[in-house]
Specification:
Helices cover 39% and strands 19% of the residues. The chain is of the alpha/beta class and 495 residues long. It has 2 domains: 2-254 and 476-488, Rossmann fold, CATH 3.40.50; 280-472, Glycogen Phosphorylase B (Rossmann fold). Helix 1 (18-32) crosses helix 20, helix 11 crosses helix 14 and helix 12 crosses helix 18. The structure holds adenosine-5'-diphosphate and alpha-D-glucopyranose (GLC).
Length: 495
């Protein structure tokens, strides 16, 4: 099959979160299943700088927002990736430095609606093979609000490729004023709550939900949750309809085992596997992590349990549950804590304050560092992920693979990938981590304390690590399920 994979980020070219990892891992896995996949991505400045020399494969014009713009389709001359990537270059929209969505002050670019509205129009031109590339997809697979208008605009074409739309996070709707709806020249009938209108704004994500042949989300539990009022964010009705029409499926993300594998990970000072070096090398990685983040201040910390967090510092991730429980955890145990993250400034400040107050036990890196994230997964004993909601979550899978049992809230993909420690699950070799049911400080605290108590029992702990490391989270299975969906256009009954 020819598959056009339209996304706004892709590891290692540009990444703000898990979408980038999925946009690398899933196309590679589909490629391994002998499918012809082309990933299409905006030509951000940082991406152009990373890839170096490019060739222009074709060009075309897109209209909207008061003008007509020429879109160039570029391809890197020497790509380190196995998957073909096409970059859509429109200088005034994408040739800007840094984060794909935010300016240097951390605010949304003022013209994000225009940027991704026109990106979506450009993807449609490619999908209809009007860019002179002589390649026609059978399926266009789109991701999140940035490509939400693609299924809507393709619905106006006949014949057209099939469309699949994946929701990675329902809380980002891509909402913009009516003026953008007009500026993009969208059909006036679409200004309706059953189409693209959402409380008097344009919600680009609805384009995917309403118009795609198939809608997926990234775990079976999240697929169920978003059909309920408390997680559906006002779209539960539309999503329930989608489900009743057999158009909504939950497919769990895989992880890219070429990138996240403690036996081969180039970021790790000391590599290990389930059979070799798990205990000793993890401890040496812990020392290396502490050396980087704490220097000589915490010379004895390596002997204590180390709990880690990596993630975007936003409400979703429950970082405030950790900071609220921290004083009690510090008092009731000898554990140390390490945080790597960037996001909302009040969370960043809270973490800096904690590190200042507890210089020997709390270590913080505010910023984005792929290298540190890998060393943290390897060097920590426990991983903390108390997300309020989590469509899938990748870090809990990475931590399982790295022998770092996670403490997670029973929600979305966390619930689907971590098996709680009980006497029985430990005895039968199924336990992989610590799951708590309510997103409250008390519940999180109790789970973290349960984890630290088990850590003090090395034999049980090592069994738990082994169980997690032996899980198969590779993409192969889930890529096969996407392929079935592309082929049948039907629901395979997962949710
Ligand atoms: P989300 O996509 O909601 O942010 P996921 O768990 O799916 O959550 O994926 C997050 C990805 O982003 C992981 O690969 C994680 O390691 C990475 N990540 C998040 N914040 C940082 C950071 N500050 N430094 C390095 N990697 C980060
Ligand atoms: C989103 C979700 C996260 C998921 C990722 C990749 O960013 O917040 O749970 O793992 O997308 O699908």
């Amino acid at each position: 099959m020819n598959i056009l994979f339209a996304t706004s980020e892709m590891y290692p070219l540009i990444k703000t979160g898990g979408l980038a990892d999925v946009s690398a891992g899933l196309p590679a896995a589909l490629g391994a299943l002998q499918q012809d996949v082309r990933v299409v991505l905006p030509a951000y400045r940082d991406v152009l700088e990373t890839v170096g020399a490019v060739t222009e494969l074709g060009s075309f014009w897109v209209n909207g927002c008061g003008g007509s713009r020429r879109v160039k389709v570029l391809c890197a001359d020497e790509s380190p990736l196995e998957t073909t990537v096409w970059l859509l270059a429109v200088d005034d929209l994408f040739n800007r430095p840094g984060n794909p969505y935010l300016n240097a002050d951390g605010e949304d670019w003022w013209d994000n609606g225009e940027r991704f509205g026109l990106f979506s129009r450009a993807v449609v031109e490619l999908a209809m093979d009007r860019g002179g590339l002589r390649w026609q997809p059978d399926v266009v697979h789109c991701h999140d609000w940035q490509t939400g208008l693609v299924p809507a605009l393709l619905s106006l074409e006949t014949p057209r490729p099939r469309t699949v739309f994946t929701i990675h996070n329902l809380s980002y709707l891509g909402r913009f004023p009516y003026a953008l709806f007009e500026g993009l020249g969208l059909p006036s009938a679409w200004w309706h709550y059953e189409k693209l209108e959402f409380y008097d704004t344009l919600a680009m994500l609805k384009g995917g939900i309403v118009f795609a042949d198939q809608v997926t989300t990234v775990s079976p539990s999240y697929a169920e949750e978003i059909c309920q009022p408390d997680h559906g964010l006002g779209l539960h009705g539309a999503l329930e309809l989608c489900r009743n029409e057999g158009r909504l499926t939950g497919i769990i993300n895989g992880m890219d085992t070429a990138v996240w594998n403690p036996a081969k990970d180039p970021y790790l000072p000391f590599r290990y596997s389930v059979q070799r070096g798990r205990v000793a090398e993890k401890k040496r990685n812990k020392q290396a992590l502490l050396d980087q983040l704490a220097g000589s201040v915490a010379s004895d910390a390596v002997e204590q349990p180390l709990c880690g967090f990596v993630g975007r510092l936003v409400e979703q991730k429950g970082i405030d549950l950790i900071t609220a429980a921290l004083p009690q955890l510090l008092e009731s145990s000898t554990a140390c804590f390490v945080f790597i993250g960037t996001g909302q400034s009040h969370y960043e400040q809270q973490l800096r304050d904690l590190a200042q107050r507890h210089p020997r036990r709390v270590f913080v890196y505010i910023g984005y560092s792929e290298a540190l994230a890998h060393v943290l997964e390897a060097g920590c004993d426990l991983f903390l992920m108390p997300s309020r909601f989590e469509p899938c979550g990748l870090n809990q899978m990475y931590s399982l693979a790295y022998g770092t049992p996670p403490v997670v809230h029973a929600t979305g993909g966390l619930k689907d990938t971590v098996v709680d420690v009980t006497e029985d699950s430990l005895k039968t070799g199924r336990a992989t981590g610590f799951v708590f049911s309510d997103a409250t400080v008390e519940d999180f605290l109790a789970a973290a304390q349960r984890a630290l108590a088990l850590f003090a029992r090395p034999r049980s702990w090592q069994q738990l690590q082994k169980n997690g490391m032996e899980q198969d989270f590779s993409w192969t299975l889930s890529a096969g399920r996407y392929l079935d969906l592309y082929r049948s256009g039907g629901n395979d009954g997962d949710s």
